[in-house]
Amino acid sequence: MLKKVMLLLCFFLFFISCKKDCYTAPEKVVFEFVNSSGENLIENNQLGSFAIQEDAGNGNYTGIPLTKTADYKVIVEKIGSYNGTKHYQFASGIKLFDFSVQSSSVTTDCDGFQIDEIYFENVTATKENGYYRIVLD
User: Taking the CB of residue 63, how many other CB atoms lie within 10 A of it?
Assistant: First the structure.
């Protein structure tokens, strides 16, 4: 009888641990900053320094890593890996605006997150093919 219980327990544990060992990262968030004429502000050196910070609550903000690309866009790193909504702030000498990212867990066999929506405030932003074009005039 003990052998049957142990065998059943081993069989049960085997199937519980058979979930795929994988992780689905949220897709990259890429921004292109342009003026009202459509000129890229990083390419023509008009943007200058800028930063994106996460609202950590109580008036505190935490810097978010950014990566400039060869085509003068910016990848916003480490964003969207959570369940819920987080708020962010973009600051430059040209413009200050807020945006929020709503993410959720993926519904596949893998663990991970997906970005459901990005909401922008006080700025014109359009979703293009693989990036957001943001007008900073």
Answer: 9
Model confidence over 26-67: pLDDT tens digits? 999 999 999 999 999 999 999 999 999 999 999 899 999 999
Contact 64, 52 (CB under 8 A): yes
Per-residue pLDDT tens for 69-94? 999 999 999 999 999 999 999 999 99
How many structural domains is the chain composed of?
1
Q: Is 97 helix (H, G, I), strand (E, B) or coil?
A: strand
Spatial distance between the Cα atoms of 82 and 69, rounded to a whole number of angstroms? 25
The set of long-range contacts for 59-64, using a CB threshold of 8 Å and a minimum separation of 24, is 61/89, 64/88
Q: Which domain holds residue 50?
A: 20-135
Bridge partners of 121, per DSSP, are 98
User: Reduced to 3 states, what is the DSSP secondary structure of residue 11?
Assistant: helix
* Residue 93 amino acid letter: G
Q: What sign does the CA torsion over 38, 122, 102, 62 have? A: positive
- Note whether residue 9 is domain-resident: no
